[in-house]
Amino acid sequence: MAIADAEKNLPSNNRNGMCNSYTVPNRPVTLIVTDTSDGYDSASSVDGPMEQWRPSVYKVFLCLFTFCMLVMCAAACVYSYGEKWNFIDALYFCFTSFATIGFGDFLALRANESVPANLYRVINFFLLAFGACLVYSLFNVSSIVVKQMLNWLIKKMDIKMEKPMLCRKRKTRYYGLGLRPPPGMKILMLGKNS
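Structure tokens predicted for Potassium channel domain-containing protein:
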């Protein structure tokens, strides 16, 4: 019996369930997750006119950068006290550790004996884990910002190829990172005519 057939044979009240499991003799257990909503329930917890709102990537970048710098400075204060480093060295350690570069020239070994060892280990773990998540998110958003800047630059430069370099004449092509041709221009499909 196929899975599609098993789904058809479900009682009507089970078709709206989030998760159904099917067992077919001599087959492994199959788990099928179905979408029970129209797609809007899990997309946003806001109802009304704010439902379709999306934040600007530049604002997200600015917020992430600010929060990342605050966490990095706070962690540098903790490491400068716990390791007896100056603030700049502790900030350097935070950046290389949070960005998972890790040169190994600075190690968090608890040079200050007044700090309890177990407490310092827990604080060190949470600072490194949280800082790495923040810096990774910042790098991810910054790559989107760089892509948008390159798209804007390419659009402003209006890079287009009027005369083909090969024998056959083709229509004007616009190049860029996801740029669309101007309105009214037919799109040249790659692969079919190339």
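Confidence is low (pLDDT under 50) at residues 12-21, 38-44.
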